User: Fold this.
Amino acid sequence: MASKNKAGTTSGTTSGTTSKTPGRTAGKTRSPAKASGTRKSGGTQKTAPRRKPAATARPGLVGKQKRAGRTGKKQTSPQLAHELKKVLIGIMALSAICLTTAMVLDIVFNTGPGEPPRQIKQTVKTVKPSAPATPPKEPEPVRKPAVPPIEELETKTKLAGLKEKTGKEFVYEVFEKVEPPRKTPAKRPEMVLPPDHSPKICLIIDDIGYDIDLAYALFNLEPGITFSVLPGAPYGRAIAEDLSRKGAQIMLHLPMEPVEYPKIDPGPDALLVSMNPDQLISKLTKNINQIPMAVGVNNHMGSRLTTREDQMNQIFTILKKKNLFFVDSLTSGRSKCLASARLLQLPFAHRDVFLDNFQNVTYISKQLNRLIDLAEKHGTALGIGHPYKATLQALEQELPKLRKKVDIVPASTMAQIPG
Assistant:
């Protein structure tokens, strides 16, 4: 009995102890073995057979791998930027080397714009050190040529834009018609002169400044001729100064736009219809200043400009201020010059006869006789000619007869303020 009790006590104690122990052990720690499963059977513990754990990654190791992966990605970006910097620095260095080389070559081999380097070698070869060095001649200063004396001027220069006829003769003037129709200027009353007064004619020779010999031949033939000088002519001013000192009357032959412009050019500094008032007055003043000894003005060409009353008013305003008279060459039958002269009270005259529209001695002689007839009828008449050889020959032939009938007077005596 004693032994049974002892055994029962022992087993009861053991079982009680056993029943308490698992609860404490489970509350504190559970081993993987216990977690996998422990079965109680009648107060005794039965342990299930252990299974081999599956190959799973440890949490700590997985975290490290992820961080390592992120770190690898972050590390690649700085490496790429570093490589790009190296490439850019290399390119910049190469460019700097190329530019420096090009500059050096340019300094060494450049010979100036448009000259090949080969020319340098040729120049170097031609230099001979043994030859004696000669000092270079200093260039002479460029001087403005003065107007030569009349006696030394033997050639003539053609005015740009002038037509030519047969031979080498110049055409100094153009007209709408051979004899343009005239209105008011042609209607002059007939005059009965006293017996001791002769009719008066004025002979104006235009376009002086190109043919020196003809100009002096005309002056020597008749000192009473009035010479109208082109401002753009090469010898115009020199001839004008010399003839003025000898007593001849000088006029300005003012170039104006013709109907045929621009096919026919009236010459440099011509007055054009397209000019505004400032331009017109500036050109006019320039032309007047070129022939300062002129006492009057007549138009060179001008078959278009003289039909513009507003512009003729502007021109005559300047002429009046400078005390210059005006002779209308009447290159157009529609000229407004008389109306402008009457408005501004400018001394005015007009052409009655063109002497040499045709360069024929017989024709010019007839025109001179016609001029005398008009002078005998009206008391005065004004004829305009040009420095042609035919004109000189006709005057040589007709002047002895002409002087017996009329007096030759300068143009200023013909100019009167229109009523």
Remarks:
- Residues 1-44, 111-132, 139-171, 178-187 have pLDDT under 50 and may be disordered.
- The first strand starts at residue 38 and ends at 41.
- The first helix runs from residue 2 to 28.
- The CA atoms of residues 277 and 314 lie 7 Å apart.
